[in-house]
Amino acid sequence: MSVKATTTPVLVVQEDPREEHLLLDPRPTKELNGMILEAMQRTGKGFWLAVIILGALILVGLVGAWGYQILTGMGVAGIRRPVYWGVYIANFVFWIGISHSGTFVSAILRVFKAEFRRPITRGSEMMTSFALIVAGMYPLIHLGRTWRFYWMVPYPNQRHLWPNFHSPLMWDMMAIFTYLIGSTLYLYLPLIPDLAMARDNTTGWRQKLYRILALGWRGTEAEWHHLKTAINIFAFAIIPVMFSVHTIVSWDFGMTMKTGWHSSIFGPYFVVGAIFSGVSAVATVLLIVRRTMKLDYFLRPEHFDAIGKLVLVFSFAWTYFFFADYLTEWYGGEAVGKELLTLQAHGPVAPLWYAMLITNIVIPWLTLWNRKVRRSFWGLLLVTLGVNVGMYIERYIIVTGFLTRNRLPFDWGAYNPTWVELLISIGSLSTFIFLYAVVSRLIPLVPIWEVREGQIAHTLRRVGRALVPSVAELE
Amino acid sequence: MSDTVLLALFDDVEPVADTLDSLRREGISENDMVVVSGVPYPARVLGRPMVWERLPLIAISGAFVGFLVGVFLNAGTPLLYPVHVGGQPLIPLPPSLVITYEFTMMGLIVSTFLGVLWESTFPSYGPKYYERRISSEGDIGILFRCPQERVAEFETLMRENGAEDVVEPEAKTL
Q: What fold is seen in the domain A36-471?
């Protein structure tokens, strides 16, 4: 019997795993604290310029344009019969989608003990809270008579008005309210130990702020025990709430008898789309944060590699749901359904529809299988930005495009957003960026204690001739 | 006989569990010693007894209260403030499940948060024994109460177990 090599032997040189993995590259606690506190206080000219520009855009959009709409009336928006839901509702759905970032990255990955989550959880949880704040503004903007919002609140009153709790719009309000409270508390709880760290390492107004927010935390066994138990309960509780929120948003559409909307697949389709856009937004934001706040030690290519894989997986999932919905409509052959498909393929929204297919399917599929793209700043940034442009288009078409075609042609129409709607949209986007930029300078954006906990649990173990990462079950 | 509080600081978790054993052997009860750290260490790592955690019970109770609020809003208020929609029952079951679910989850989430505050007696800024090095430098501290006349003996014991410093901490406002 001859023993012959069937392939050409290649010398495999192992890279140092410590360079690759944050959790295998521990540094002294003082140094870790210093890095994160320094990043929080790094506010150069560029930062202040960005804050001023964003502040100005918020003033123009949310004070100027929205104020003008309140004073003048909803006629200044482009919504006309039959398109009663315009950009405001598309924005609302989009921002609710972005809010799924934190819960998915933080809660689901925490439940499954995905170790790469550790430095990125807080950055994504912050996105959830701020995206929900922005999303929550849109029903008020869309309301027109914003000052009447309290009519939605159930309390005995002499007007004999009572909200109908069996209406999807009421479900929406309650679901968003629950999710906002849940995700904000879920952001705050794991933050307490890091706020105590900041309290102990800062002076002046920052120390006063952190002292209040840290609630007197010391880090005793009992405090940790309660905190860890609470985080576990939150992680499990917030996941079904996350699913319910976008499902209920989809039911705003699905519960109507409108062709294109009245679909049982809308719930999961919206949820998958939300996670797709949310995870993409996490990548976009963290790439920018890494560069501007110089967090290269904490946010490494391994993290973007993992997020890139998630984006690709959710691109597959979104495509599946999109196609299932599309094919059902196509095969049904209902006249108005055909019109909707024609509208997308050849009608006025066709350029947008094809752009959506390219950014949500073609580009991610062609690029994200490649490790180099997932680890490249510009590569991942452009792909994930593209995904969010595509997901916005998807919402825009579903909300405004579908309303232009109804069962009887006399009820067809067109929709063009006005400058008021566009300025309000820019104002709300600026609000999100503004909040994120400012708060990232106020609270530790990377959960130091979680990173340290991970670094204690991770070691290198020799298996044969290779050094392989090994994790101890400390949690 | 008056008691003194000592804080032994260690730069690693390994000797902490052994030191806790030494303290037990010297007659210090479990209730008179506390480990303070910047990273959570499970009870099994430190060799400490498992503590009964009431938080899940608080969370479930909160969820139940939320459920009752949801049921009240769905079933109670339509009876108090009837809104008749043509062809629909006043209290339909499937749509009622949505609001009931949301309120149940809201109750669970809010009660869990309040439970943490309650169980940890937060906020509490009053004077407490604490040392900044725990959060700043990653030290692990053992706070324990010992008789005044045995302070020197316990200091030696701590250092023999690997403590990098043993201090009589001052209770500070946090």
A: Formate dehydrogenase/DMSO reductase fold (1.20.1630)
Domain boundaries along the sequence of chain A = 36-471
Q: Which of B116, B125, B134 to mutate to test the interface with A (most CBs of A within 10 A)?
A: B116
Indicate yes or no: CB of A452 within 8 angstroms of CB of B83.
no
**Cβ pair B119:A237 closer than 8 A:** no
Is A178 within 8 Å of chain B by CB? yes
**Tell me, what's the pLDDT at A5?**
55
Distance CA A289, CA A304 (A): 12
Helix (H, G, I), strand (E, B) or coil at A405: coil
CA distance B9 to chain A (A): 14
Q: Which residue of B has its CA nearest to A244?
A: B102
Per-residue pLDDT of A101-134, as tens digits, reads: 878 888 998 999 899 999 999 999 999 999 999 9
Looking at chain A from residue 277 to 316, which residues have their Cβ under 8 Å from any Cβ of chain B?
none
CA dihedral A414, A417, A418, A423 (to 10 degrees): 180
The answer on B65 and B113 residing in a single domain is yes
Q: Which two tokens stand for residue A38?
A: 């320094």
Across the interface, do B41 and A219 touch by the CB < 8 Å criterion?
no
Query: Chain A: nearest CA to B2, how far in angstroms?
Result: 24
List helix spans (H) across A298-376. 301-332, 335-345, 350-357, 363-367, 371-375
- For residue A412, CA distances in Å to A90, A333, A339, A409, B84 come to 19, 19, 11, 5, 32
Q: Which domain, by its residues, includes B86? A: 55-119
For residue A470, what is the enclosing H or E element?
Answer: strand A466-471
List chain A residues with pLDDT less than 50. Answer: none
